[in-house]
């Protein structure tokens, strides 16, 4: 009976559409008023000790969210203490703070239904909180304790160190993580942006090292704070001054980092691993993020290898069925070059063919350029994706704080989008010819050479790496 009812309803709906369809306008002829979207602008202020604050009210829900970004990136680590920045950031939260032991801090936050989280990357460290607006005073105090008065409990430090050591050991079993790690190390060899933690470097880190890193680089005058949520702006500024105002500014002495070599010697690096698949990365240092060159090159890179309709995906995976995953990426660099690379995960017996295709598609882009249809599709993708940068007041405010900390020019992203809308096929081809270097690449392969269809020597000088077990 139910099936009969569904059939009758379906026929009725179809008949209704048929009766009225003749009166419907042609969808292709529809026109719309242009949609203008103006994202809200956070209010910028500065606390008495130099902390730059960005605030944006959002009374939608009774919640408050905040993040402090600190100019204490991983590239500042000593060469023999790689992993120190991450260990310091994790221990801020997990090692207790102020008058709270680690367990007491956990319990206090749980009671308040709040969280305080920390992280570190190659560009900055961060300390964030999430709170109910009714509890924000208590959570702000705990957050400030973590940021300003960490105690770095020895026992918890060892727990965090053990967890990081476990991650290092797990990486050795993951061909993809190994390939990525070794590729970026070789591309940036000699520069700390390519360094990675080892068992030796992590094991050597002491509580004194963590405290020294914190004291050396965490300071209010190199920090930016983003806060959004259900609050009054002036009232929140007063609260932030109350909890952060006694954080003393410092004269930060940043180390002179080794020079980044923008033209490493082309080589093939091979890491033996008895697996059926090969992980391949091919690339070289590139341009600074959001420079005019970056804005054009990003479009070229996305046409080459970003998404299901990209050239690499279409040619290597869809047409030939030679890769489980393939694509390209233009990594960002702010004070040192970013990295352009292509990648593929393929059957071992297709390794040489896939390397040829990765390099060949770069050359095809340089020699033949792109079509207007390809460019328009990529332009729409980039513009549509840009809307996700404005999905919430928190996303807007946090990005504004990071931009200030990284020293990017205001309006840099708007300039990028404007460039995307106006770029021509000729400009895409020109930047590919100028910045892509298929004859000067670092090639990284993790796999089993016994399976390869061609010797890696066909692609250049081969350096065989050893994996410490």
Descriptive overview:
This protein is of the alpha+beta class. The chain has two domains: 202 residues, Cytochrome Bc1 Complex, Chain A, domain 1 (2-Layer Sandwich); 198 residues, Metalloenzyme, LuxS/M16 peptidase-like (Cytochrome Bc1 Complex, Chain A, domain 1). Helices cover 44% and strands 17% of the residues. The chain has 16 helices and twelve strands. The chain has a six-stranded mixed β-sheet with strand order 1-2-6-3-5-4, sandwiched between helices. Strands 9-10-8-11-7-12 form a six-stranded mixed β-sheet, sandwiched between helices. β9 and β10 form a beta hairpin. The longest helix has 20 residues. The protein is globular. The chain starts with a helix and ends in a 5-residue tail after the last strand.
């Amino acid at each position: 009976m139910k099936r009969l009812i569904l059939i009758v309803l379906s026929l009725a709906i179809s008949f209704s559409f048929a009766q009225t369809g003749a009166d419907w306008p042609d969808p292709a002829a529809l026109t719309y008023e242009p949609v203008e979207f103006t994202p809200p602008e956070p209010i910028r202020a500065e606390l008495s000790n130099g902390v730059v604050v960005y605030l944006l009210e959002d009374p939608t829900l009774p919640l408050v969210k905040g993040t402090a970004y600190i100019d204490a990136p991983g590239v500042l680590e000593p060469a023999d203490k790689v992993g120190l920045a991450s260990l310091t950031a994790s221990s801020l939260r997990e090692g207790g703070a102020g008058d709270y032991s680690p367990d007491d801090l956990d319990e206090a936050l749980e009671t308040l239904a709040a969280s305080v989280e920390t992280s570190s990357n190659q560009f900055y460290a961060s300390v964030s909180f999430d709170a109910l607006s009714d509890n924000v005073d208590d959570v702000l105090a705990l957050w400030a304790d973590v940021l300003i008065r960490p105690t770095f409990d020895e026992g918890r430090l060892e727990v965090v160190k053990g967890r990081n050591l476990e991650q290092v050991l797990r990486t050795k079993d993951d061909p993809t993580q190994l390939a990525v790690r070794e590729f970026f190390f070789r591309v940036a060899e000699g520069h700390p942006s390519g360094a990675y933690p080892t068992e030796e470097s992590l094991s050597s880190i002491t509580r004194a090292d963590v405290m020294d890193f914190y004291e050396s680089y965490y300071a209010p005058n190199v920090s930016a704070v983003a806060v959004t949520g259900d609050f009054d702006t002036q009232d929140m500024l007063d609260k932030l001054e109350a909890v952060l105002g006694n954080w003393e500014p410092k004269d930060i002495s940043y180390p002179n980092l080794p020079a980044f070599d923008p033209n490493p010697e082309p080589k093939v690096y091979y890491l033996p691993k008895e697996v059926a698949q090969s992980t391949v990365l091919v690339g070289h240092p590139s341009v600074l993020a959001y420079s005019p060159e970056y804005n054009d090159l990003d479009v070229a890179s996305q046409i080459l290898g970003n998404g299901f309709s990209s050239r690499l995906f279409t040619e290597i995976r869809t047409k030939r069925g030679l890769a489980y995953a393939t694509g390209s990426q233009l990594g960002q660099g702010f004070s040192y070059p970013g990295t352009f690379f292509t990648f593929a995960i393929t059957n071992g017996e297709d390794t040489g063919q896939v390397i040829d295709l990765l390099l060949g598609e770069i050359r095809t882009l340089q020699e033949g350029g792109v079509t207007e249809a390809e460019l328009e599709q990529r332009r729409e993708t980039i513009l549509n994706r840009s809307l996700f940068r404005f999905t919430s007041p928190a996303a807007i405010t946090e990005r504004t704080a990071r931009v200030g900390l990284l020293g990017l020019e205001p309006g840099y992203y708007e300039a990028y989008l404007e460039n995307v809308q106006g770029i021509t096929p000729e400009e895409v081809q020109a930047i590919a010819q100028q910045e892509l270097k298929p004859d000067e690449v670092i090639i990284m392969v993790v796999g089993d050479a016994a399976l390869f269809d061609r010797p890696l020597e066909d692609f250049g000088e081969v350096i065989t790496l050893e994996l410490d077990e």
